[in-house]
Queue: 3 jobs
Job 1
Amino acid sequence: MSQSPSISPTADLTARPAPRGVAAWLKLLRLHQWTKGAFVVVGPLYGQALDSWHSALAVAGAFLAFGLASSGCYVINDLRDREVDRTHPRKRRRPLAAGTIEVRHALAAAAVCLLLSLALPWLAMFAGAAPPVLTHSPTLAALLTTLTVLAYIINTIAYSLWFKNVAIVDVMSLSMGFVLRVLAGCAVVMVEPSAWLLNVTLFLAMFLAFGKRLGERRTMGEENAASARSVQAQYTEDLLRMVVVVTAVACLVTYSVYVTSAPARRTYGMNLLWITMLPATFALLRAILLLERGRYDDPTELAISDRPFQLAALLFALITVAIMAIGRVAVVS
C-alpha cells in the first residue's frame, strides 16, 4: 500500500535555540495542554447542570484545578527526564534540559501548581461559587472533586515513573486522566456520571493515545519512534492500526447508546441528539485517514491544524449545546 511522504516532527527544531524567559516558562508548564481540561464540562453539560453562574464558576474552578495539576506533573516529568532529554534532538530544547530554568525554581513551581490544584475546589465552593443545588453539600462536592484531582496527580506521576514504559498500561493510564476529568466535572455539581459517558471518554482517550503512537511511527519511522518513546519498541504497526480502529468503533458505539438512552432529551418526536453522530463519525474517520497517511504524529496537532476536522468538531459542539438547550426548555414546559 502506497503512503504519502512522511514529515519528521523534528525537522528544523535542532537549529532553533531553546526558549528563554516567559517563553521558557510557558513551554515548561505546557499551558496549551490545559485545553484537555474541557472534559470537566462534559458531565455538567449532558447532565443539564450548567444552569446558573454558580455552576459555571464551580466547573471553571475544576478546569483550573486540572490545568494546574497537569502543569505541576509536567514539571516533575521534565525534572526526572532532563538528563535523557539532553541527548534527544527535539526534547533537548525543553527548559530544564537546556538549563534555561533552574531546577530549584522548577521545583517551587511544581509545588505551587500542585498545592493550588488541590485547594481550588474548596476555594470555588466557599467563595460564592457553590451552585444553589449544593446548599447542603458543598463540602462533599469539594471533597470529591479534590480526591479526583489527587487521583489524577498520582496517576500522572505513576505514568511518568513507571506506566509509560509498559505497553497497553501506558495508554490505559493516559486515558484515565480524561476519565478523571469527567468525574471531577460531575462531582463539582453533584451530577451522577453515566457509565456510558465514562465508556465514551475512555475509548475516545484510548483512540487519541494509540493514534499518537501510530502517527509517530508513520512520521518518524519505527526506529526513530522507539528512540523517542521507548514503549514503541513493544508495539507493532499492525497492532496499533488495529487498536486505533477498534477504539474508534467502540467510542462511536458507546456514544450512540448514550445519546439514545435518556428519554428526557427526546424532543419533537425523536432524540435530536442523534444528529451529533454525523459530525462525530466524520471526525473520527477523518482522524484515522490522516494518521494512516502519516500527515500528523499527534491527533491533538491534527485537531488544531486540519480544517475539515475542526469544522466537524465545531458542528458537534454547536449542535450538542443547541439540542441540550431545546431539551431543557421542553422538559421545563
Job 2
Amino acid sequence: MSSPLTATPPPAADLPARRNDFPILQRQVHGRRLVYLDNAATTQKPQTVIEALDRYYREYNANIHRGVHTLSEEATEAYEGARATVARFINASSEREIVFVRGTTEAINLVAQSFGRPRLAAGDEILITHLEHHSNIVPWQLLCEQTGAVLKVAPINERGEVEIGALERLLSPRTKLLSVAHVSNALGTINPVAEITALARRHGVPVLLDGAQAVAHLPVDVQALDCDFYAFSGHKIFGPTGIGVLWAREALLEEMPPWQGGGDMIRTVSFDQTEYNHVPHKFEAGTPHIAGAIGLAAAIDYVQGIGLEAIGAYEHGLLEHATARMQELEGVRLIGTARHKAAVLSFTVEGAHPNDIGLLLDQHGVAVRSGHHCAMPVMEFFGVSGTARASMALYNTREDVDIFVDSLAKVLELLR
C-alpha cells in the first residue's frame, strides 16, 4: 500500500494551467464552458485531493486512536499527520494547538462557549466589526444572551474598510474578546489584522481571527499575527466540506473546558467523574471526519506546491483585469472598493435583482453567487438587499474573466 502521508504536490507551473488539475472544470453547463466564480462560497477540488480521499476509503478506512490493527494504525498516522501539516502551514507552535472541527462556524462557536461563556459576566463586551459573516455575529449574540454581555460593532467606511480609529476607541477594560474577519467574504476587503491585533494587545484583549476567506489566498502565520485564535474551513482551500481548523494558543486550550462530551475526548470515565484527554483531543469528541482531515492535508500540500505568494499575486492580476472590465458596463455598481482586496467583485445591476443576474449568467455557463452572502449587515450598510458576487481562485483565468464580463454585458442587453 502506498503511504497515506507521502502524496507529492504537482510541480509548480503557470497558474492558468492549474485549471486542468480540477476535474469538475472540464464539464459544460448549458452547453457552455464552465466558468466557476463562486469560490468564496466553496472551492473546487484538485485531483490530488480526490485521490487522497479515494485512497483512504479504498485502502485503510478504519477508526483512529483506539485500534491496534494495521488499518487503524495507518488511519491514525494519516489523521495525526494531517494535524502536523496544518500546524506547519499556519506556523503553529505545536501540533497540540490544532483542533479539527467541522468548519469556521463550529470553531467560532467552540471559542464562544468554551472560552467566552465561563469568563463573561453582565456588562462585559465583545467587539466585532460591521464586515462580519453571520458566523462571526450570531455566536456572540447567543453568548451575550447567555451571560448578559454586550456586543459592540466597529464601523466601516464607504469603501468597505474597517474604521481602525473607531475600533480602537471601542476597546476598553470591559472588552473581553475581539473577533474579526481576516478577509471579508462579501466584499473581499483584506483587513489589517496584524495592526488590529496589536491594538487589542495594548488593551489586553484576546483576538479571534476568522480566516475562512484568507487561507487560500494569503500566507498565514499565526505567530506573526500574534492572535489568540484562528479559524478556517477546509472547503475554502480546495479541501473537503465538513472539516475545519481551530488554532488556539496551547495555554488557552489547556484552560478551556470541553464543549462536547463523548468518546476520545476522555482519559477515564466513571459514574462519579470523568478525566478529560490532553489537548487537542479533549475538543474532538466522537469519531472525527478522518477522511476530511486527510483531504485537507492533501489540499494544503497542493497549495504549498504552488506558493501562496504566487497565488495572491496572480489573483490580484485577475482582480485588476476584472475590475477594469466591469467599469466598462453601464448600470453596474461595484460594492466594496477597499484599497486592499482579495479577488472578489460584489456588484448590483440597476433595475435587476441579484438572483436574476445569477440565473441569467448560469445560462452562459458562468457560476456566481447572489444574495446577502450571510452578511446582511453589510448589505444594509450599502443600502442593498443583496449583490451578485464573482470570486476568483488560482484556477481561474483571464479568459474566465472575459467570458464572465461579456456574458454580463449580454444579460444587461436582455434586461434592457
Job 3
Amino acid sequence: MTFDINKIRSDFPILQRKIYDKPLIYLDNAATTQKPQIVIDRITDYYTYENANIHRGVHYLSQIDTTAFENAREYIARFINAPKKEEVIFTKGTTESINLVAASFGRKILNKDDEVLVTAMEHHSNLVPWQMLCYEKEARLKVIPYSDKGEINLSTYQMMLGDKTKIVALPHISNTLGSINPVKEMIRMAHEKNIPVLIDGAQALSHLKVDIADLDCDFYCCSGHKAYGPMGVGILYGKTEHLNFMDPYQTGGEMVEHVTLYETSFNEIPFKFEAGTPNVEAVLGMEAALHYVEETGLDEITAHEKNLLVYGTKKLQQIKGVQIYGKAAEKAGILSFLIDDIHSFDAGTIIDKFGIAIRTGHHCAQPVMNKFGIPGTVRASFAMYNTREEIDKLVEAILQVKKMFG
C-alpha cells in the first residue's frame, strides 16, 4: 500500500496541537509513541459499551470481553509469528516480562558460579534483574562488549559462551545507540551450546518485523506503549517447554487450577502467569495499535524511518560541534548526540521551547554513558509520523542552542 504521511499524521490527534504556540514536533518515540485515534476509540468503546471482568463470567459482557481478550492474544501471536498463542503472556510491559523470566526461569536454572551473559548496551530493565539474580545465586554476570560504533563482535561473543553460561539476555535494538543487533545469529550460536536466549524487544516491535519462529529465541519481551498502544501492557513470549518448567511469578486469581486451604495446583499456560484482573482495555488497545501498524505496512514504516535516520544523521553531521553516539551499520531511527560541551539537560530545555519533544539524560542506560565518559545525551527518535521538515526544525533548534551558549 502507499505510505501516505499526511494521512498517517492526521490519524494521531496529539500531532494537531501546539506547544508554546508552535506545532508539536514529537521526537521522543523511543520513550513512548503517540496513539492513533483507532486506539483511543477502542479503549473508549470498551469502557462505554463493554466493561466487565473476564474469564469465568457467564453474563453477556463478561463473555464478549473474554472472547475479545483471547482474540487479541491470538492476533498478537500471529503478528510476531509465535508458534502457539498460549506462548504469549500478557504483562505490564517489557520490564515486567524480563523480571518474570529472571525470577521464574533464571532462579530455577542458575546455581553458584554459573554465568549470565548480557551486553554492555543494556537498558537497566535487562541488566538489574540479572545483577540481582546473580548476587542471590552467587553466580557471575558476564558482559559482552561492543565497539565505539555500537557493534557487537560475534567472534568475541562466541568465545564468551561457555559450559557455565545458563542464559543470554540481549537487546534487539539499543535504546541509546540505535544498534540493531544480529540477534538471530547470536541465538543460533547460543543454541549450539544449548543455552537459552531472552530478547529485549522493547525498541523493535513497531520498527521492524519481529518473527519469533524465524529468530527461534526462547523468550521475547516487548511493550505496547512503544508500538502506538497504551501504557501498562506488554507481552512475554516464551517457548512452551520453558513456561511449563517455570513456577508462577505472582499468585492469586485466575492462575490457579484448584485451591484448598492447604495446597494449590496451578492453571495451564498462559494463565499460570496472569494472576489477578488483567488490564483488559490496554490489551484491546495494543491489539488495535498493531492492527494499525500492520495496515500501514511494516516494510513501508521501516523504509520511511530509515530514510529519516539517513537524512537526520547527514544534517546533524553538518553542524560543527555535534557528536553522534552510535554509528552501527545496522541501525534503527535513533540519534543520540551532544552539542559541543553543553549539558544535555540545558540543550533539551532550549529545544523544548521550539515545541520539539526530545529525551535527555542517560536513557536508563548508564553503563553506555560510562563507556563514552559522558553523563548523558540528547536523543531524537523517529516514528512513522515524523518528517524531514521536523528534522530541519530540530537543526534550527540545535543552532539556536549553540548560539545561546556562544
